[in-house]
Amino acid sequence: MAKTDLMRTSMYVGGTSPSKMIQAGFYNEDCIVYDLEDSVSVGEKDAARFLVYNAVRYQRPKDKYVLIRVNGIYSDELAEDLEAAVRARPDAIRIPKVEYADEVRRIDRKIAEIEAAAGLPVGGIELWCNIESYLGVLHAQEIATASPRIAALALGAEDFTASMMAQRTKAGWEIFYARNAILMACRAAGISAQDAVFSDLNDEEGLREDLQMARSLGFDGKTCVHPRQIDAVNRCFTPSEKEIHQAQRVLQALQDAERAHTGVCTLDGGMVDKPMELRARSVLAKAQAAGIKVGGDE
Amino acid sequence: MLVNSLGRELPERIGDYIVRPYTGPDAAPPSDAPVVTRRTAGHLLPGQSKLLPDLTAAILAAGLKDGMTISFHHSFREGDKIVGQVLTAIRALGIRHLRFAPSAVVNISEPSIVDFVRDGTIDRIEASGIRGQLGDAVIAGELEQPVILRTHGARPRAIEAGELQIDVAFIGASAADDYGNCTGCIGPNACGALGYSFVDAHHARCVVVITDNLVDYPCVPASISQQYVDYVVKVDQIGDPEMIGKGAARLTRKPRDLMIAERTVDLIAASRLFRDGFSFQTGASAIAIAATKYLADRMRARGVKASFALGGIPAAIIDMYDEGLVRAVECSQSFDAVAARAIADRPGVVEIDNADYANAYTKGGFLNREDFGVLGALEVDVDFNVNILTGSSGQMLGGLGGGPDVAGGAQISIVALPIIRGRTPSVVRRVFTLCTPGETVAAVVTDAGIALNPKHKNYEMLREDLEKTNLKLVTIEELRRIAEALTGVPKPIETTDRVVCIVEYRDGSVIDVIRELKK
Hints:
The structure holds two protein chains of two kinds. By secondary structure, chain A is of the alpha/beta class. Chain A has helices at residues 18-24, 45-58, 78-88, 101-118, 134-138, 140-144, 157-163, 176-189, 204-217, 230-236, 241-259, 274-289; strands at 9-14, 31-35, 65-69, 92-95, 126-131, 150-155, 192-195, 221-224, 266-267, 270-271.
């Protein structure tokens, strides 16, 4: 399966539009999410399943991480969605509105059964959990470790805000705690943290500010609902030239200190400690994954 | 049967047309023969008038007879009301078997040009492209004589070589005086540059200017001088202003087109030729307009200014001029009202003769000095050959326009197109109609990646420049594979042996023919 280490952007594409599904493969998003849930009307669920199965199984875009978002855990569609989704062999299945770890475990078992029946390696398909309510946020830590399949948690801000009886704002203080709770759960579990959709497609400045917040907090990527947002999101989660240069200097300083057998490494008058080294390595790894030619010995 | 250097099979003769096969983009040597003209010296005495009461009087005064050649420009586009009025007047006079040789055939519906073909008023057509109802009729074999299709640069060459001799040129102008000084830049039906009519005015045996806006003598500004004009006619309406600017592209919101446009500009900006004083042409398609916007952004960011923008000009280029990003706008056609007005309002926006824009066989040619040309296409094949005429079922969809000229002249010619359109692949094994030779195409930019042409003269330079970037380079073969994997391979279009269109290259050689579709 074509996979990428980058998960800067995951873009939803509706499961009922073959042309949009084909086109989505050509944009610059790292992860493509074929949707069977919200973008598909009740009467078209079976058609969408058929189209998405064929798109993923036979027209899978190269060099992208491919997901299928299934219908809700308690919906009538889920069983058939999972049958089709697993057999289509995506990289991951994205589950909406997860609130309890047990829900994840049940789906994990179901997927394993289908994998076995289809002759696929059991455990090969990963899971992304959308956290879209206060219950999901409260249980984020258990959800993040409920199955070894889990590769990411993603915040769903609109539903979360509704569950809190809060108002959605551009500044996003109503989701500030949820963002942090999910991030900490992801970091503790060693999985990817995905930020919520910014839904005003025409507000480029608002998107930039929202991204700035997400990046500063520590998210690895963001969900998009329109291709117009992809490049801005990718740019935000790709290390800048300045960051790459600084990371290279940090690693060089560490190397120089090791060669000189000095116990303490300094750079620009400050001490280079372990967190700085980890951050520098992470910056360079992300840059390389994004296709940026990083020089030096990394 | 002949085979040209691009592998196209051509008959040796098509009726009385003797085929000279294409042998290469620069293969035809310049001619030292004098330019052929039908223009007469003329002599008017003070007090004599050129103003005639109506079109019928002008047609009679011009001495139009059966079998002669008439010409028009296409700058009123879909809003043209001149071609229909003139042909109707000609038909009423019982004149038949004319050769209709406009710079391009515009789609007019009431009356339709097909009506004049069917009643025998017109029996030969030479143009840049034929679409719509007329295109359907031609490809279905309704015209006995094959249509000769020429690029914007090839038409003035053919005129000056004597291959296309115009008896009467009917030139629509949005303002004219009673002595024939005229322009397209002012008046209620302004269409902007009259670049296509210069060569007709210079070489036709008789020139009739038609306007609905007779202004006081002298008409200022004037694009075409009184010294070339025989008669002037005032009619009620020369065009529909709503439709003249129709098709003028607004900035697209389609993410696919925006992405292709951005990649096109990424390529331009990565080239070493993108430096102060560079020159470019983007065109008026949705992708082209978006590319113009992105190019302006990139020029601002890098502090780069262009010496000139060329060709058909949309408002987006005028914005760049106003901002100081472009020093001169060399305009052979104006795509919208803003661009049309700009020639009259701005000293650096200049109306140019279409021959000076695109004809490879003159002592000038702006295209020879152009760095980047962005081109649209219906399909491109694995040899980078481009089809801009025929669609997936063989129907006539486009015109040659200046595409083959731009590719032949510009340092870096970029074909920008989506990899599939609907259920049709745009990158194919072999284009149905070959219009632009692949050897003149530097790069193909699609949503699925950029393919550079290893056989292009500037390939090494471009490859070296692009390899320093993160742009996704793929082979043209890979693009074809991706396209056909999505759509399947279309069944070949079936044709008879009868040739209905001859596609001439810039030098007048035959690059391809279009055969009648099998019914």
